[in-house]
Amino acid sequence: FSMFPYLLVYISSVLLDCIPVFAPPAWTLMMLVMLKFDLNPWVVALFGTAGTVCGRLIFVTYIIPWIGDKTIGSVKEEDLKFLGKKLSQKGVMTFFFIFIYSLLPLSTTALFSATGLARVKKILIIPPFFLGNLIGDSAILISGKYAIHNFSDLYKGSLDIKNLLLMAAGLFFMLSFLFIDWRELLENKKIKFKWKFWK
Fold first, then answer.
1. pTM metric for this prediction
2. Most Cβ neighbours (<10 Å): which of 18, 41, 46, 91?
């Protein structure tokens, strides 16, 4: 039992989830390392999720506030702070929303960008994210290892319609947080867009 491949999974997941752009989900890298070294998918998921959580903590604590101060206008920042306050008051709903989102094989850059800019408390984010990510990544890795060993022809292309739809969903989620006037939605139950979010 060599620890090196699992440490590689952990360190790679930390670094990948610090990237402040729409980087590929960490499970794609976990899958490659798992297949390269023929690793136990359960252990890979555990190390990978631990790395992802550490990476996202760095991302939401240091990177997003720094980027937000330089790219998001004061009006939009106030809207996101207002949204963060509302989400913080809805602890159970926030827990389940983040848990369900983390179960999906989507990039969580959008999720952590929005919650970081909105100043949502980390105690509301990390536990459901860890749990959802661990379950979701375990399912993907186990099914992926089975599929690779039994149906290798399924993995000949990466830009199929499913992957394109998943990327589009992640992009839509991020843009919705940037352009929707959250104060108008939460206070007056009306959907209104602010296209110049940097002002």
1. 0.70
2. 41
